[in-house]
Write a structure and sequence with these properties.
Helices cover 53% and strands 14% of the residues. It has 13 helices and twelve strands. Helix 9 links the parallel strand 9 (207-209) and strand 10. The mean pLDDT is 87.
Amino acid sequence: MSELLLMWDVLLLGTPLAVVAWLLVVWRGEHAVDRVPVLCYHRLTSQADLDSGKIVDDEPVWTVLDTTFAAQLDYLKNNGFETLDLDEVLAIQRGERPAPAKGVVITFDDGYESVLRLGAPLLAARGQRAVVYALLEPDSYTNGQVAGIDRICTPDEILAMQAHGLQIGSHSMTHAILTTLSADKLRWEVEASKAQLSALCGREINHFCIPRGGVSRAVVDAVRDAGYLTCSGRAKGTARLASDWLTLPRIAVERHHTPAAFGKLLQPRHSFVHKVLGDLRLIPTRLFGATWGRKLRSLLYGPGLSWLFAPRNVKRLLVLGAVLYGVALVELVARRLG
């Protein structure tokens, strides 16, 4: 019994210290002078199509209204942010061009047709850049997720996005969870997409995005071995010029991010909160792997429980946890003194 109490006391004292140390590391990173926010979008939804009843799209996370996206681009332009593509960021890293006062990278996963139809004109009209991680042979799961609402771009449409000034990267061949594949299949997903997209676009494809949270050391090694220069996955938070750009963190932009909320994502104090919450949300994936982690996250963040993870409620839970910790600490002191 005494050994169990000793273990409890060690955990009680050690866990908060570890958490505080982690929070200090995150705070320092989010306030670094060389920070470069990399924004993660997926697809866009037409406000006009929703209003007319042409489509029904109540997806809360993976889409942003085109009107909201336009307002977010205006926010960047009006507040002195310069949009960069990933080649430009690497050139800044190498000292080949100066860093802007406020640099930001816009990325889109999957290569949806809505990005070409709705996003590309909005970006072009403002002289802004973005990166699109494209798929060449999307699997049935990926196509089925947006059937009747959106679709993955064809090769000709990928070329049209490039012609609009969007930088093309790879999102694998099929959008599979790469951690579930054999070594040969993993190499094919990574290497074939690079070769085929490079041939299609007439330029080397140097940037990769790992789909569906399927991140592991073996996957990152395969991406590096294939010759990619950057790789994004499930890491949350703000990138830095000094970061390892083969484990590139990003800031997810979701449907509920109004221009005001969007602006907060770019501020160090608020991006710190976003990073902390994002890492907490990834705990199921890190504990149970990409496949089961996604299922558990869908349950936890679904309609029934998602209210628990709103920032306001998370803060309340943290306060409650601090109070309970204080009570346990008082009990420990009283027991030791008694």
